[in-house]
Amino acid sequence: MLSVKGMNFENVYSNVEIREVEGLEVKVISINELLKAKAASGRSRDIDDIENLTQ
Fold first, then answer.
1. How far apart are the first and last CA of the chain?
2. Cβ neighbours around 2 below 10 Å, total
3. Which of 6, 19, 30, 55 is 20 to 30 A away from residue 38, measured at CA?
């Protein structure tokens, strides 16, 4: 995958969060960037995800 609608790599990467998973540090997208990308997609499953993630 080379691009994701609604996402800019530099913006997303500068806002990553580091989480520990089973002893490993893993970089994950921030919740705000994830919500922006899901909103930009416009897919019904992503809109549903937004509703569930913001409750």
1. 30
2. 4
3. 19
Q: Where are the chain's structural domains?
A: 9-53
Q: What DSSP character marks residue 52?
A: H
DSSP string, 18-51: EEEETTEEEEE--HHHHHHHHHHH--HHHHHHHH
Tell me the three-class secondary structure of 3-27, residue by residue.
Answer: CCCCCCHHHHHHCCEEEEECCEEEE
Query: pLDDT per position in the chain (55 positions), as tens?
Result: 667 887 888 888 999 999 999 999 999 999 999 999 999 999 999 999 999 999 9
The pTM of this model reads: 0.76
- Residues in the chain, overall count: 55
